[in-house]
Amino acid sequence: MLNQRNWVVALVALLLMASLAGCAAAPVAVPDREVAISIDDALAGQNAGMAGLMQGKVEWTEAQFSSFLTELLKQNSGANNPVENVTAWFSPDNNVALKIGLKEGVLPFGNDLAATGKVMVQDGQLMVDLDSVGAGALSLSGPLADYASAVINRILADPAFGVAVDVATGDGTIMLGMAGM
After folding, report:
1. Contact 8, 14 (CB under 8 A)
2. Is residue 154 part of a domain?
3. How would you class 143 by CB atoms within 10 Å of its CB: exposed for 0-12, middle for 13-18, buried for 19 or more?
4. Partners of 114 in the β-ladder
5. Number of CB atoms found within 10 A of residue 92's CB
6. Is 150 inside a domain boundary?
7. Per the structure, how many domains does the chain have?
8. Which one, 48, 97, 137, 139, has the greatest CB density within 10 A?
9. Which 8-state DSSP code applies to residue 56?
10. Tens-digit pLDDT profile for residues 69-103
Protein backbone atom coordinates (compact mmCIF):
# COMPACT_ATOMS: atom_id res chain seq x y z
CA MET A 1 0.00 0.00 0.00
CA LEU A 2 1.27 3.43 -0.94
CA ASN A 3 1.36 6.09 1.71
CA GLN A 4 0.89 9.80 1.05
CA ARG A 5 4.63 10.49 0.66
CA ASN A 6 4.96 7.85 -2.07
CA TRP A 7 2.03 9.40 -3.96
CA VAL A 8 3.72 12.80 -3.92
CA VAL A 9 7.02 11.32 -5.16
CA ALA A 10 5.20 9.40 -7.90
CA LEU A 11 3.28 12.53 -8.96
CA VAL A 12 6.45 14.66 -9.08
CA ALA A 13 8.24 11.97 -11.13
CA LEU A 14 5.28 11.78 -13.53
CA LEU A 15 5.20 15.57 -13.98
CA LEU A 16 8.97 15.66 -14.55
CA MET A 17 8.78 12.91 -17.18
CA ALA A 18 5.87 14.64 -18.90
CA SER A 19 7.68 17.98 -19.04
CA LEU A 20 10.88 16.38 -20.33
CA ALA A 21 9.00 14.50 -23.04
CA GLY A 22 9.27 17.58 -25.24
CA CYS A 23 13.04 17.93 -24.76
CA ALA A 24 15.74 16.61 -27.08
CA ALA A 25 19.51 16.76 -27.07
CA ALA A 26 19.66 17.97 -30.67
CA PRO A 27 19.67 21.48 -32.10
CA VAL A 28 16.62 22.91 -33.87
CA ALA A 29 16.89 22.19 -37.60
CA VAL A 30 17.00 25.40 -39.63
CA PRO A 31 17.61 25.70 -43.39
CA ASP A 32 21.23 25.51 -44.46
CA ARG A 33 21.05 28.19 -47.16
CA GLU A 34 23.20 31.26 -46.61
CA VAL A 35 21.50 34.56 -45.72
CA ALA A 36 23.91 37.45 -46.11
CA ILE A 37 23.72 40.10 -43.40
CA SER A 38 24.94 43.53 -44.46
CA ILE A 39 24.37 47.18 -43.70
CA ASP A 40 23.16 47.72 -47.28
CA ASP A 41 20.44 45.07 -46.86
CA ALA A 42 19.56 46.56 -43.46
CA LEU A 43 19.04 49.97 -45.06
CA ALA A 44 16.97 48.40 -47.86
CA GLY A 45 14.88 46.64 -45.21
CA GLN A 46 14.42 49.90 -43.31
CA ASN A 47 13.35 51.68 -46.50
CA ALA A 48 10.91 48.87 -47.32
CA GLY A 49 9.46 49.13 -43.81
CA MET A 50 9.01 52.90 -44.05
CA ALA A 51 7.36 52.58 -47.47
CA GLY A 52 5.17 49.83 -46.01
CA LEU A 53 3.96 52.19 -43.28
CA MET A 54 2.67 54.52 -45.96
CA GLN A 55 1.24 51.80 -48.21
CA GLY A 56 -0.10 49.49 -45.51
CA LYS A 57 1.93 46.52 -46.78
CA VAL A 58 5.59 45.59 -46.63
CA GLU A 59 7.56 42.81 -48.27
CA TRP A 60 11.05 41.85 -47.11
CA THR A 61 13.59 39.36 -48.39
CA GLU A 62 15.39 37.11 -45.93
CA ALA A 63 18.55 39.24 -46.24
CA GLN A 64 16.66 42.53 -45.70
CA PHE A 65 14.69 41.22 -42.71
CA SER A 66 17.70 39.53 -41.08
CA SER A 67 20.02 42.49 -41.66
CA PHE A 68 17.44 45.00 -40.46
CA LEU A 69 16.81 43.08 -37.19
CA THR A 70 20.53 42.53 -36.61
CA GLU A 71 21.45 46.19 -37.12
CA LEU A 72 18.42 47.39 -35.14
CA LEU A 73 19.51 45.30 -32.16
CA LYS A 74 23.09 46.55 -32.45
CA GLN A 75 22.04 50.20 -32.63
CA ASN A 76 19.55 50.06 -29.75
CA SER A 77 21.18 47.69 -27.28
CA GLY A 78 24.59 49.11 -26.41
CA ALA A 79 27.87 47.38 -25.64
CA ASN A 80 26.37 44.64 -23.47
CA ASN A 81 24.13 43.28 -26.23
CA PRO A 82 24.68 39.49 -26.31
CA VAL A 83 23.28 39.14 -29.87
CA GLU A 84 25.68 39.01 -32.81
CA ASN A 85 23.14 38.40 -35.58
CA VAL A 86 19.59 37.37 -36.37
CA THR A 87 18.95 35.13 -39.37
CA ALA A 88 15.46 34.46 -40.75
CA TRP A 89 14.38 31.94 -43.38
CA PHE A 90 10.97 32.07 -45.06
CA SER A 91 9.28 29.35 -47.07
CA PRO A 92 5.78 28.91 -48.53
CA ASP A 93 2.72 28.23 -46.34
CA ASN A 94 3.84 30.80 -43.74
CA ASN A 95 6.76 28.68 -42.51
CA VAL A 96 9.47 30.63 -40.70
CA ALA A 97 12.77 29.69 -39.09
CA LEU A 98 14.81 32.08 -36.94
CA LYS A 99 18.29 31.72 -35.53
CA ILE A 100 19.83 34.22 -33.13
CA GLY A 101 23.60 34.05 -32.94
CA LEU A 102 24.95 34.94 -29.51
CA LYS A 103 28.39 36.09 -28.46
CA GLU A 104 30.77 33.46 -27.15
CA GLY A 105 30.05 32.35 -23.59
CA VAL A 106 26.49 33.70 -23.25
CA LEU A 107 25.09 30.17 -22.97
CA PRO A 108 27.04 27.26 -21.51
CA PHE A 109 25.76 24.80 -24.14
CA GLY A 110 26.03 26.64 -27.45
CA ASN A 111 25.90 30.06 -29.08
CA ASP A 112 22.55 29.95 -30.89
CA LEU A 113 18.87 30.34 -30.11
CA ALA A 114 16.57 28.94 -32.79
CA ALA A 115 12.87 28.50 -33.51
CA THR A 116 10.78 27.06 -36.33
CA GLY A 117 7.07 27.34 -36.94
CA LYS A 118 4.36 29.27 -38.72
CA VAL A 119 3.21 32.88 -38.69
CA MET A 120 -0.44 33.83 -39.07
CA VAL A 121 -3.00 36.54 -38.43
CA GLN A 122 -5.86 35.76 -36.09
CA ASP A 123 -8.41 38.35 -34.95
CA GLY A 124 -6.23 41.12 -36.37
CA GLN A 125 -3.13 40.07 -34.42
CA LEU A 126 0.11 38.66 -35.79
CA MET A 127 0.72 35.29 -34.12
CA VAL A 128 3.22 32.45 -34.17
CA ASP A 129 2.73 28.71 -33.79
CA LEU A 130 6.16 27.27 -32.99
CA ASP A 131 7.01 23.66 -33.80
CA SER A 132 10.31 23.73 -31.94
CA VAL A 133 12.52 26.12 -30.02
CA GLY A 134 16.03 25.58 -28.86
CA ALA A 135 19.18 26.90 -27.29
CA GLY A 136 22.49 25.50 -28.43
CA ALA A 137 22.28 21.74 -28.65
CA LEU A 138 18.97 21.50 -26.74
CA SER A 139 15.55 21.71 -28.32
CA LEU A 140 11.98 21.75 -27.07
CA SER A 141 8.79 20.79 -28.84
CA GLY A 142 5.20 19.92 -27.98
CA PRO A 143 3.75 21.63 -24.90
CA LEU A 144 6.96 23.51 -24.16
CA ALA A 145 7.04 25.01 -27.67
CA ASP A 146 3.35 25.87 -27.22
CA TYR A 147 4.26 27.76 -24.06
CA ALA A 148 6.95 29.72 -25.96
CA SER A 149 4.36 30.50 -28.65
CA ALA A 150 1.94 31.79 -26.00
CA VAL A 151 4.58 34.10 -24.51
CA ILE A 152 5.50 35.53 -27.93
CA ASN A 153 1.84 35.92 -28.89
CA ARG A 154 1.15 37.92 -25.72
CA ILE A 155 3.93 40.30 -26.74
CA LEU A 156 2.65 40.54 -30.33
CA ALA A 157 -0.87 41.33 -29.04
CA ASP A 158 0.36 44.74 -27.85
CA PRO A 159 -1.60 47.44 -29.70
CA ALA A 160 1.68 49.23 -30.45
CA PHE A 161 2.30 46.59 -33.14
CA GLY A 162 -0.78 47.73 -35.08
CA VAL A 163 -3.51 45.56 -36.52
CA ALA A 164 -2.28 42.95 -38.95
CA VAL A 165 -4.63 41.96 -41.74
CA ASP A 166 -2.44 39.59 -43.72
CA VAL A 167 0.84 37.72 -43.58
CA ALA A 168 2.27 35.49 -46.27
CA THR A 169 5.63 33.88 -46.88
CA GLY A 170 7.19 32.66 -50.08
CA ASP A 171 10.56 31.30 -51.06
CA GLY A 172 12.79 33.75 -49.22
CA THR A 173 10.21 36.51 -48.68
CA ILE A 174 7.67 37.65 -46.12
CA MET A 175 4.79 40.08 -46.70
CA LEU A 176 2.95 41.77 -43.87
CA GLY A 177 -0.19 43.84 -44.43
CA MET A 178 -1.35 46.27 -41.74
CA ALA A 179 -4.68 48.03 -41.24
CA GLY A 180 -5.00 51.66 -40.28
CA MET A 181 -1.63 52.70 -41.67
Report:
1. no
2. yes
3. exposed
4. 99, 134
5. 10
6. yes
7. 1
8. 139
9. T
10. 999 988 888 778 888 999 999 999 999 999 999 88
